[in-house]
Amino acid sequence: MESSQIKNRKIFNFSPFGKERELNSKEEKSLFQTLHKARKRMGKFFLENQILGRKGSIGCVSLEISQRCNLDCSLCYLSESSNYVDDIPFQELKNRLDGVRDHFGVGTNVQISGGDPTLRDRVELVAIVKYAREIGLLPALFTNGIKCSRSLLKELSENGLSDVAFHVDLSQERKGYKTEHDLNAVRLEYIKRTKGLPLMVVFNTTVFEKNFHEVKNIAKFFAQNADTVDFASFQLQADTGRGTIKERPNKISTETIREQINLGVGSSLSWDAILVGHPKCHSYVPTFAINEKCYEIIDDPEFFGEFLKDFSHISHDRRESVLKIAWRYIKAANQKPSWYIKGIKYFLPRLWKVKGDLLRSKGKINKISFFVQNFMDQNNLDQERIDACSFMVMTHEGPISMCLHNSKRDDYILKPFIVESEKGSELYHPFKASQVASK
Which domains does the chain have, with CATH numbers? Predict the structure, then answer.
């Protein structure tokens, strides 16, 4: 990315007053450096349609604010020690957020996660989200939703939360729900809690043998609710953590999950037009939902590469409406007017193909993205994929690939460390965990 493009980049720093701010010179320099590092880290995967190194230096970074959880999933990535570990001090969480910004730049997506983050003291949870937004990060709450009330979501939203991601599937063994179809009642309740709030709504689904045959119906459900659901992530089971289900059946793969999603949304989606990190780790396709069917927005990697080359410097807050975001790019095209012709040539024939569904939906179009995430087994890590990781967790020592972190979780969560603050140094020791380890 050219330095002149970086100077045009804006990050929308949410406040109760809705004010915007431009990057200062220090942030511009830092962003340029982090993008350069990302390009080097991608290596041979830094192709023209690769997002990392252009739109951002990382897909997202997880900040685990509590190891505790109120579920015990059959595919849990936590360790046997997790529920015994004391919560990390608030000051250390602020330090780690500073680390996310320093390593990956302002505008980085940060997952406030755990365990389940809603088990953290509510005042502290809100303060964590607020601090992340204040330093230019885009915070998302990752939760199973059990303690995530409408009231909490509203307060978090008012303090800068960008997204809320609900994890709901059969691996959680929620009582009274025997099928994914049954769990749609839970999903609808969570959707109801978010209605009218300026949040991007995400649903995470872990795919394993028990629910593989329902993936197409889950995808269909999300397409039917695309007026609220913005992002649907399907995660392949992995042998890691304290989960009781280990080996993944051969029928569950990135390719078969993508096929099932295609069946559910009634369209053969172009899964390889956009690259996010290593191609064996992630598949991502943004779509327009029209008449309960989904059609990819981008199906041509060459076109997307040209788009990234000319518009990767444009930033926006995901909480803005689709129309407002689109208008931002239309205005940016004033600097490159040839894109008006390119855009018309690209989109008109694709609109013509979906004209029937457009008419039946009376012109109503929603946007929803689908994502397939292929985590690695703890005893089968691929160094090439770790090096090109787009999903990391921030530790006291710095960012670590999530797959690597999950394979050695106790090495990180049971280790004492010094917390630095304005008041001085303080030793944090995960007392409960060390007691368990000594038995």
Answer: 33-306+365-428 (3.20.20.70)
